Amino acid sequence: MANVSTLRFGAQTDEVTSLLRIVNMVRSGEAVTRPEIGRVTGLGRGVVAQRVDRAVEMGFLEDAEYAPSSGGRAPRTLRFRTERGRIVVCALGGLHIHVGVTDLDGTILHEAHRAWDIATGPEQTLATATTMVDELLAEDDGTAVWAIVVGLPGPVDFDSGRPVAPPIMPGWNGFDVRTVFEQRYGAPVWVDNDVNLLAAGERARRRDENTDLIYCKVGTGIGAGLVSHGRLHRGANGAAGDMGHVRVPGSEHVCRCGKTGCLEAVAGGWALVRDAHAAIADGATGLLADSAASGDELTPEVVSRSAERGDPLAISLVQASARHIGEAVAALVNMFNPSVIVVGGAVASAGELFLAEVRHRVYELSLPLATRDLVIRTSENDRSEPIRGGVDLAREQLFEVSLPRWFADGRPTVAAVRGA
């Protein structure tokens, strides 16, 4: 049987390959008894027993309850030891920080959320975020952190973990976010665009469907996460899906990125707040005007809630945003041909009022073949969505991408995952 040195850093012998596969089969639920593993892999009973014993010895698997009998002796099931490590997700939005700690199966053990302006800058923001993570880990039992995922509300070079010219994040361009977390927690870190985390969460709900989907987030800003055949599509440099800065013909609004006429400057949450203030100054009345007059801050969420409650100004703003979003999404539908479009974010929380307008424009402007089986719906509006999506991304990177590099160590290390 192979010793640790022959397993190290992806030495892909037949034994190592089958051992890795068995661990992942049990982890994913593809096969959870020794007879099932034998049937799926074609390995003999003795070989399966050797591989399973090795995985148990290394701490990845353990025997669990008995499976139902099919006529003979009931087989013992195996379970992946999800309690051995923790996954930390830190989802940074334009106006909030959301952190969570889960086990290796994605069960959320602790989470926290607080308001925060991302424009405060990277040093203060990450100091606040890591303090929140420290507080959650202090509530835990001391189990080692195996992976950390950080979501940022702007373009990210996934390979380096650095934001690239993010429009709403002054001071963040090129900042080494990954190293801040890796040095503090001694665990591998992946940094991605926040919408990719949401798309990964939707992918996890359809893990067996090999889905092509678009997650379109319409919040303070606008972005899209693309999943192709079950894989996140980031493009050559991580900029895929950045639809918020597509030019809207005829628009002269200046965007926060410095350009003129971007979709975000017309249909994003901050643009709706801007237009609401302008309309109120021109004499508009109703719920939004009353909120502003009472000193309440107008936010994208306030606009959406007011639209749901029938405020004419809010309805007109939300519907106008949805029309522009629908036109942009229609172009993506023609190029990408997804099976599912999920629309989420603060503005989209207006629900059917927003979604009906998006659907109308998409079906009007897209090719019939591209929309023949297309499903367009709103997100689950689950507050923990970014955490669940970050966990899915972490599990993909740990067990589907980097597992051969760290398996021999019994747990992932920064050096092994990075191939150092």
Instruction: Provide the CATH architecture of the largest domain.
Output: 2-Layer Sandwich
Count of DSSP H/I helices: 17
Main-sheet strand order equals: 5-4-3-6-9
How much beta, percentage-wise?
Answer: 15-25%
Largest sheet: 5 strands, mixed
Give the count of structural domains.
3
Gyration radius, to the nearest Å?
A: 24 Å
| Fraction of residues in helix | 40-55%
Low-confidence regions: 1-11
| Highest CATH level, the class of the largest domain | Alpha Beta
Compute the separation of the termini in Å: 26 Å
Classified in CATH, the superfamily of the largest domain is ATPase, nucleotide binding domain
**Within the CATH hierarchy, at the fold level, what is the topology of the largest domain?**
Nucleotidyltransferase, domain 5
* Record field, number of beta strands: 14
How does the helix and strand content classify structurally? alpha/beta
> What value does the average pLDDT take?
92
Which overall shape is indicated by the principal axes computed on the Cα atoms?
globular
